[in-house]
Amino acid sequence: MVNSEIIIAGFGGQGLLFSGKVLAYAGLLEGRELSWLPSYGPEMRGGTANCNVILSDTPVGSPIVQHPNVLMVMNLPSLDKYEADVVTGGKIFVDSTLIARKVERTDVEAYYVPATQMANEMGFPGLANMILLGAVIKKTGCISEEGLPAALKKVIPARKADLFDANMAAIKAGAEYVG
Amino acid sequence: MSEKVLMKGNEAIAEAAILAGCRHYFGYPITPQTEVAAYMSKKMPKIGGTFLQAESEIAAINMVYGVASTGKRAMTSSSSPGISLKTEGISYLAGADLPALIVNVQRGGPGLGGIQPSQSDYFLATRGPGHGDFHVLVFAPSSVQEMADLTSKAFELAEKYRMPAMLLADGTMGQMMEPVVLPEPIEKVEEKPWAVTGTKGEREHNIINSLYLKPAELEQTNLDRFARYKIIEETECMWEEFMMEDAEVCVVSTGITARVSRNAIVEARKQGIKVGMIRPITLWPFPKKPLIEAADKVKSFIAVELNMGQMKEDIELAIRCKKPVALCSRVGGMIPSPDEVLEAIKKEV
């Protein structure tokens, strides 16, 4: 399987660290080497937040992603900050409800998903992250789709277990959008 | 418990401490180690342990002193500014020959500094964190697995040698998640013949104390302690070597920077550069032996660290300045990239 070096970035509160955890747990269940590293501190509420996820078949060295091959962004400052770092041939996933501009690089693949709008229409305004994540999983194959439900069950806290179906539906919607 | 679980480094410390029989945690919140306290606050009440958020770091370390006196495993955790406050208590623990675990998940300094990762408490930890002539055991984890394993080891060696131990992590190690296999729970913490547990009228009093007003007596306690330190330096050094067999340049690094260096070394090897790494796992005792041996083989050393060259001095001492030691470092919460380390390596060949 391909080694994935992933940056997921946006505003604090958009569920970006959560999205990264879903990938990390899926990697764990697949028996892969992995790391998950969050930004931490005062930027977590309202400011920019990000997490770095590495999924690999060999032991992970630095958990800090310098040159991502997958970038998932949910605000403009994050696209501005990380676009140049993506490797040639890498994939960028943009929440096009929140980011008006297009990806300027021509040597990467860009996918535009109106995740926030779709989430609102589905009645789950908090799940735009999972819609965009669905697109990431579909287009990168960074984790297997079969292992996803089990990973999601590990990440969703017990008190929010009723949101499992909504999360799965959001992931599915994102995957279908990029088809 | 051979199953791999996904945990933050800070959580792995807390769970490993519990599995090592620690039932007494005293702390005060500070980023980036708060998850240790948060984990303990949830878990300790359920297993009959004590979680206490003290009124200050100073109170917390003195509560550790109290529990340690009874022979029970006790710990506190904090980050750099909080560790400064604890140094008085750590000195007293050392003076009273008490085992305890102090976790320092370092952030940038001095002063309140910042909250991003740092290794700038290296001197503080390795030179004896407090007044007087003493050392604490210092462990520098470089993975979430080591956060767990070295927590167990720290308790074990602290008791074996009756001295405090410090787990010296950096903020990245505390915050990152990785798969970890948790250690087996220990059956029972051994009874200590020296502990103050009540005599029940059946034995002499045990006295826990660090005050000796007769100079000859105080001198003897120091000499006895340093005799133990000598044994520790000879037998308890831990380190890991990476691609050192034919290396001409030796990187020396710990914690997050060892991880970054690993990437740089793998890349350098692809480019035909003969470079390896010695990663100290114990910082006191400092693994001098592999370094002095490497000094006969390599052309130069590079210290890669998150401070202005504190460990670099220990490397120079260890190798008796036989070879030059370069410094590749970032401070204040900045972390060098693999490319920066690679550049530093290329300067040496």
Summarize the structure.
The complex is a heterodimer of chains A (179) and B (349). With 179 residues, chain A is of the alpha/beta class. Helices cover 36% and strands 21% of the residues of chain A.
Please identify the oligomeric state: heterodimer
CATH architecture of the largest domain in chain B: 3-Layer(aba) Sandwich
Q: What is the assigned CATH homologous superfamily of the largest domain in chain B?
A: Thiamin diphosphate (ThDP)-binding fold, Pyr/PP domains
CATH topology of the largest domain in chain B: Rossmann fold
Q: Please write the CATH class name of the largest domain in chain B.
A: Alpha Beta
Biggest chain pair interface: A-B, 20 and 24 residues
Briefly note the CATH topology name of chain A.
Pyruvate-ferredoxin Oxidoreductase, domain 3
**Helix/strand/pairing category of chain B:** alpha/beta
CATH hierarchy: architecture of chain A: 3-Layer(aba) Sandwich
CATH level 4 superfamily of chain A: Pyruvate-ferredoxin oxidoreductase, PFOR, domain III
Helices and strands of chain A: which structural class? alpha/beta
